[in-house]
Write a structure and sequence with these properties.
It is a single chain. The chain is an alpha/beta fold. About 55% of the residues lie in helices and about 15% in strands. The chain is built from nine helices and five strands, in the order βαβααααββαααβα. The protein has a five-stranded parallel beta sheet, with helices on both faces. The longest helix has 28 residues, at about 75-105. The radius of gyration is 17 Å and the shape is globular. The chain starts with a strand and ends in a 5-residue tail after the last helix. About 25% of the residues are buried. The model has no long low-confidence stretch (mean pLDDT about 95).
Length: about 200
């Protein structure tokens, strides 16, 4: 089975590409979805967050207060690093379990949608990588609009990740997502038809 890493930066449009692939029937392992699963009530990840960051990170329902946790970690590099150290092993284990299931089903190809692919060293799980790219100006504009953030808040989140330019240098293929959704889809089709993923 060929394993393709799909990554980008916050608000670069990676999810648009991921949704298109799923709509075409390709198996996609979504790291964001897995990261949400490991912090649901009863899961080890939620207990670790409460232990290390305090019960204040929980809503009255017992679920994770994502907004409060986000505000905390994007203003403190050490706390963000600690959170990653706590959760990444859990996320990695679950993703490997999902990959194993796809192998058992004899799927010829699988996409791993991982926002922090390079930051986490998870490109080692893949055979090839794709980066969804937008200019820094587009990224900032889209993030502010999508999340209702101030410019300062948006920059904090962007700066917490590896620059898109650096990710693009490491990729086997780049999808330019500065234009329309149609143009982005055309680029994905072209990559698939060119046989980029024949290993």
């Amino acid at each position: 089975m060929i394993k393709i890493g799909l990554t980008g930066g916050i608000a670069s449009g990676k999810s648009t590409v991921s949704r298109w692939l799923m709509a075409q029937g390709y198996p996609v392992i979504d790291a964001d979805r897995v990261s949400r699963e490991v912090v649901t009530p009863g899961e080890k990840g939620l207990h670790l967050i409460a232990d290390h960051f305090g019960e204040a990170m929980l809503l009255p329902t017992g679920a994770l207060d994502r907004k409060r946790l986000g505000a905390l970690i994007f203003q403190d590099d050490k706390k963000r690093k600690l959170l990653n150290e706590l959760l990444h092993p859990l996320i990695r284990t679950r993703m490997l379990q999902q990959l194993e299931e796809l192998e058992k089903r004899r799927e010829p190809i699988a996409f791993l949608d991982i926002p922090l692919l390079y930051e986490s060293g998870l490109e080692t799980l893949t055979d090839k990588t794709i980066v969804v790219y937008v200019t820094p100006e587009q990224q900032l504009k889209r993030l502010m609009k999508r999340n209702g953030l101030t410019e300062e808040q948006a920059r904090e989140r962007i700066d917490a990740q590896m620059p898109l330019e650096e990710k693009a240098k490491r990729a086997d293929a780049i999808i330019d997502n500065n234009g329309s959704v149609t143009k982005t889809e055309e680029q994905i089709r072209a990559l698939l038809h060119k046989g980029l993923f024949d290993c």
